Automatic annotation (TrEMBL), chain A:
Residue ranges occupied by any RING-type domain in the UniProt entry: 6-50
Keywords associated with the record: Cell cycle, Coiled coil, Metal-binding, Nucleus, Transcription, Transcription regulation, Zinc, Zinc-finger
GO molecular function per UniProt: cyclin-dependent protein serine/threonine kinase activator activity; zinc ion binding
Protein name: CDK-activating kinase assembly factor MAT1
Function: Stabilizes the cyclin H-CDK7 complex to form a functional CDK-activating kinase (CAK) enzymatic complex.
The organism's taxonomic lineage, starting at the top: Eukaryota, Metazoa, Chordata, Craniata, Vertebrata
GO CC, one annotated term: transcription factor TFIIH holo complex
Record has Zinc as a keyword: yes
Annotated GO biological process: nucleotide-excision repair; regulation of transcription by RNA polymerase II
Subunit structure, as described in the record: Associates with CDK7 and cyclin H.
UniProtKB/TrEMBL annotation, chain B:
Protein name listed in UniProt: General transcription and DNA repair factor IIH helicase subunit XPD
Keywords: 4Fe-4S, ATP-binding, Coiled coil, DNA damage, DNA repair, DNA-binding, Helicase, Hydrolase, Iron, Iron-sulfur, Isomerase, Metal-binding, Nucleotide-binding, Nucleus
Enzyme's top EC category: isomerase
Residue ranges of domain Helicase ATP-binding in the record: 7-285
Organism: Poecilia mexicana
UniProt-listed Enzyme Commission number(s): 5.6.2.3
Length: 311, 739
């Protein structure tokens, strides 16, 4: 960096550490003083390539290689126009071809290859894709979205950690203050000699201290590996013992109703019970409802508990 | 001898077996039976390696269809060689007992630097140079060019191997690195490629951790290894750090400058190729449009080990259009690079998460997440297409592209820390971007998922349950074995006070305290008078050691010690350290006696054994906590707390104690060995520290040796040493039996 200098006045960073190098769209460097001197009127030509320049377009040179500054400048401009995203393309291949095309344009503009033609192509593209450009302006690429998300997560976890530490400190402070207060109270009211009280307090304080120390060390104790296996568990190599058991057998449920047997679901319409029940609307049947179900339930209710309980 | 381990016939090449070895094999067999993972701790020097090998080999012979391969991972080349030697012993025993030559193929694999036999290439000093040079001789397109231009240099070993070697399998046997080289020389084949090819059908492979855990290397070497393999990580107490290191990326200004050069070279090469051979680029382009389908088919049919740097999403989609052509990709790299440069120009420390980084990079240089994710794969493809001979030169840009892929793939488990200068030198600007992995389970996950049994074992793994938690796997066996001893040959003492009753501790507040330093000095002085031969003393850090030694010098303690023994000091320079070590051993050998001052977590504490008279006492000055102010460590602790519910203190203590155990464990390397273990810090007496020492050390700490003064410790040591110095007869009947 030290050997960098202004090509016009030959000042270097070494001789003038506060030297500020500026760069314009053509990618040629000038120091701040030279810019002030040459561009008093606000515009002029580049000393090295004679490109007409405006003074307001001079920026501080960020990189050692001024062409990179220029390229980044151009790239930012091009990216504003060529802002299609991956999902605007039918396949990855097309997207990659598009990316290469963009890269070509940037390359041409930076290295002054076929500038007029390239600019024409850009303008044409801009006209043709006005809508898409407008639409994509605010959208981030998928990758950038992911990044933003990660950054947000990081921030959140940092914030949380900070809060936890703060809370912990607060709690400790309070505990200490409380123990001090109790000591004062006891000294005031208790009838025991002061030395004993002080000794007691000392013990208590030490206990508190160790407690705090322990809490501090207590960072979420885990007993699990990331695989979900207990730490320290010895894994047995023997095959699992086979457990001998009788197979489960289903027995239909017998319910004592203390009443006459209710008719079955199928019998309801045959016996004419359904005649007095509102028929189900088509929209009711959507959920599986039939009028027989409601009727069946009502009849079961009615038949239940009619006999006295025999002991 | 032959053993019956729950119905499995195991040949054991020694006449005696320790009970703990038997129970170790038992547990290991159960792990293999269950086709699950295991964590096993057994003290060093009790024959862990041979028990492992003999059981698994027996298992392989008994159930050749269930376990096809043993992959044994160790840390260093000497350790690898040791394993191969044990294996050789075992195989000889098999041949003798069964009377037939068995057809086991076992080999070790190491880097090109250790295996190359090309006269020019192998004479290069650094591993990276060897790799680069080899690549420039053997890459496929170089060899293709040679058809038109026969004057190009050639590696005749590789050519020979390529022409003949692939058809003829490596004959059965045990090969260590030298054997491979000999075999290669005899046949005129390249041993490195021979070994890499042979591991696919070998029964036992012994190599370094990195071949499985480092995604870049694993992808080259280990991805085709069979699913039905047993993987053993030996000396695995540091495995989480290995995992983390293999996934972390550090970027300095220098990396970026080198990367800039790489990108420029890439651009020039593209220009050149465009003029001469545009068809090649078009071919690559066509392939990229089609997508990385070939790789995807391979992964779906489960032929390959998954690669964390190459996430599944990358395989399912085609390379995004914005980096499809070579120029666009280079432009993309350039932008990324400039962005990183701008980020490195900071004045204060920045810490951010991967999503924050991605958002910022989009705002600043309009780089989306998706092309970043494909960056590593795209670069590999480009380098292949451009036929760049010397890959080693492009390590910088490869690093950057790996970073790009990782940062865009994992939104959790990583953090980015940019530091404008090092903590120690706040005036010198030296910006570093640490992309640090906090979750060791990311790197090791493919290993656990792919292989049917993974065994993690070491002398010091206590507390056992923390490893499954930080590596996020579910073991079927976890066991810690102790050492059965004929005589209590280890004597752990916890020295908590000096003779003047000053508490000894290396904690930060008392670091500069002269009383503590003086008492530490006294301890060493008195010990140097009592202990015969070698003493090794460990400090918690280089800085601390320097301070203490300087202060001992001023107080005249050093002078007094030197009357008893010579003093050697470990430094950060590897060459100096190995020199000191050599001289230390010489001094122990000729009876002069010596003291080696070294640092926990240093080179000496990890890889070097002090058998018998090389280490009669180990003194651990202080508790070796890591440097807790480092931001990377803080981030990791926070992550452990949030994700795995491991408390900061627990992890720090665990980490300190495993290093302390490693240090003191250096002295006892077998049952005939004996040594003192002195923990010079009063904090060791607390149960939370003591409880984290390995069981085999804990057992010998009784209440009488908890809070000693220096004098008391010296008394006890005298007594212990006198006892141990009695001739030790090999009693064969009473204590060594098979349970």
């Amino acid at each position: 960096m030290d050997d960098q200098g202004c090509p016009r006045c030959k000042t270097t960073k070494y001789r003038n550490p506060s030297l500020k190098l500026m760069v314009n769209v053509c990618g040629h460097t000038l120091c701040e003083n030279c810019v002030e001197m040459l561009f008093v009127r606000g515009s002029g030509n580049c000393v090295q390539c004679d490109t007409p320049l405006r003074k307001s377009n001079f920026r501080v040179q960020l990189f050692e290689d001024a062409t990179v500054d220029k390229e980044v400048e151009i790239r930012k401009k091009v990216m504003k126009i060529y802002n299609k995203r991956e999902f605007d393309f039918p396949s990855l291949r097309d997207y990659n071809d598009y990316l290469e095309q963009v890269e070509d344009i940037v390359y041409n503009l930076t290295n002054n290859v076929d500038v007029e033609n390239t600019k024409g192509r850009m303008e044409q593209y801009q006209r043709e894709n006005k809508d898409i450009i407008q639409r994509n302006k605010a959208k981030l690429t998928r990758e950038q979205e992911e990044l933003e998300e990660l950054l947000l997560l990081e921030q959140q976890s940092n914030e949380q950690r900070r809060l936890e530490v703060l809370q912990e400190e607060q709690r400790q402070l309070q505990a200490k203050r409380k123990s001090k207060q109790t000591l004062l109270d006891e000294l005031e009211q208790s009838k025991l000699p002061a030395t004993i009280l002080l000794a007691q307090h000392k013990v208590r304080a030490a206990q508190l201290e160790t407690q705090i120390e322990q809490q501090k060390q207590n960072v979420k104790p885990t007993s699990l590996f990331s695989t979900g296996i207990q730490i320290g568990q010895t894994v047995s190599l023997q095959p699992l013992p086979r457990i001998q058991e009788v197979l489960y057998q289903y027995k239909p449920l017998q319910v004592e109703t203390y009443g006459p047997p209710a008719p079955d679901l199928e019998q309801l319409s045959r016996f004419g019970y359904l005649n007095h029940v509102r028929a189900a609307m088509p929209q009711d049947t959507a959920g599986g409802y039939t009028s027989a179900l409601a009727c069946y339930r009502a009849i079961q209710d009615a038949f239940n508990g009619l006999f006295p309980i025999r002991d | 001898m032959k053993l019956n381990i729950e119905g499995l016939l195991v040949y054991f090449p020694y006449d005696y077996i320790y009970p703990e070895q038997y129970s170790y094999m038992l547990e290991l067999k159960r792990t293999l039976d269950a086709k699950g993972h295991g964590v096993l701790e057994m003290p060093s020097g009790t024959g862990k390696t041979i028990s492992l090998l003999s059981l698994i080999v027996a298992y392989q012979r008994a159930f050749p269809l269930d376990v096809t391969k043993l992959i044994y991972c160790s840390r260093t080349v000497p350790e690898i060689e040791k394993v191969v030697e044990e294996l050789r012993k075992l195989m000889e025993f098999y041949a003798k007992e069964t009377g037939e030559a068995n057809n086991f193929l076992a080999l070790s694999l190491s880097s090109r630097k250790n295996l190359c036999i090309h006269p020019e290439v192998s004479s290069l000093r650094f591993g990276k140079e060897v790799d680069g040079k080899c690549h420039s001789l053997t890459a496929s397109y170089i060899r293709a060019q040679r058809h038109s231009n026969p004057n190009l240099p050639v590696c005749r070993f590789y050519e020979e191997f390529d022409a003949v070697g692939r058809q003829v399998p490596l004959p059965a046997g045990i090969y260590n690195l030298d054997d491979l080289k000999d075999f290669g020389r005899r046949k005129g084949w390249c041993p490195y490629y021979l070994a890499r090819y042979a591991i696919l059908h070998a029964n036992i492979v012994v190599y370094s951790y990195h071949y499985l855990l480092d995604p870049k290397i694993a992808d080259l070497v280990s991805k085709e290894l069979a699913k039905k393999s047993v993987v053993v990580f030996d000396e695995a107490h540091n495995i989480d750090n290995v995992c983390i290191d293999s996934m972390s990326v550090n970027i300095t200004r220098r990396t970026l400058d080198r990367c800039q050069n790489n990108v420029d070279t890439l651009q020039n090469t593209i220009h050149k190729i465009k003029e001469t051979d545009a068809a090649k680029l078009r071919e690559e382009y066509r392939r990229l449009v089609e997508g990385l389908k070939e790789a995807n088919v391979a992964r779906e049919t489960d032929i390959y080990l998954a690669n964390p740097v190459l996430p599944d999403e990358v395989l399912q989609e085609a390379v995004p259009g914005s980096i499809r052509t070579a120029e666009h990709f280079v432009g993309f790299l350039r932008r990324f690079l400039e962005y990183l440069k701008a980020r490195l120009r900071v004045q204060h420390v920045v810490q951010e998460s991967a999503p924050q980084f991605l958002k910022d990079i989009f705002d600043k240089v309009c780089i989306d997440r998706k092309p970043l994710r494909f960056c590593a794969e795209r670069l590999q493809s480009l380098l292949r297409t451009l036929e760049i001979a010397d890959i080693a030169d492009f390590s910088a840009v490869t690093l950057i592209s790996n970073f790009a892929t990782l940062v865009s793939t994992y939104s959790q488990g990583f953090t980015i820390i940019i530091e404008p200068f090092e903590d120690r030198t706040p005036t010198i600007a030296n910006p570093v971007l640490h992309f640090s992995c906090m979750d060791p389970s990311i790197a090791i996950k493919p290993v656990f998922q792919r292989f049917q049994s993974v065994v993690i074992t070491s002398g010091t793994l206590s507390p056992l349950d923390i490893y499954p938690r930080i590596l996020d796997f579910r073991p079927v066996t976890m066991a810690s074995f102790t050492m059965t001893l004929a005589r209590t040959c280890l004597c752990p003492l916890i020295v908590g006070r000096g003779n003047d009753q000053v508490a000894l501790s290396s904690k930060f507040e008392t670091r500069e305290d002269f009383a503590v330093i003086r008492n530490y000095g006294n301890l060493l002085l008195e010990m140097s008078a009592v202990v015969p031969d070698g003493i090794v003393a460990f400090f918690t850090s280089y800085v601390y050691m320097e301070n203490i030694v300087a202060s001992w010098y001023e107080q005249g303690i050093l002078e007094n010690i030197q009357k008893n023994k010579l003093i050697f000091i470990e430094t950060q320079d590897a060459a100096e350290t190995s020199m000191a070590l050599e001289k230390y051993q010489e001094a122990c050998e000729n009876g002069r006696g010596a003291i080696l001052l070294s640092v926990a977590r240093g080179k000496v504490s990890e890889g070097i054994d002090f058998v018998h008279h090389f280490g009669r006492a180990v003194i651990m000055f202080g508790v070796p906590y890591v440097y807790t102010q480092s931001r990377i460590l803080k981030a990791r602790l926070e992550y452990l707390r949030d994700q795995f519910q491991i408390r900061e203190n627990d992890f720090l203590t665990f980490d300190a104690m495993r290093h302390a155990a490693q240090c003191v464990g250096r002295a006892i390397r077998g049952k005939t060995d004996y040594g003192l273990m002195i923990f010079a810090d009063k904090r060791y007496a607390r149960s939370d520290k003591r409880g984290k020492l390995p069981r085999w050390i804990q057992e010998h700490i009784n209440d009488g040796s908890l809070n000693l003064t220096v004098d008391e410790a010296v008394q006890l040591s005298k007594h212990f040493l006198r006892q141990m110095a009695q001739p030790f007869r090999q009693v064969t009947t009473s204590h060594r039996h098979i349970p």
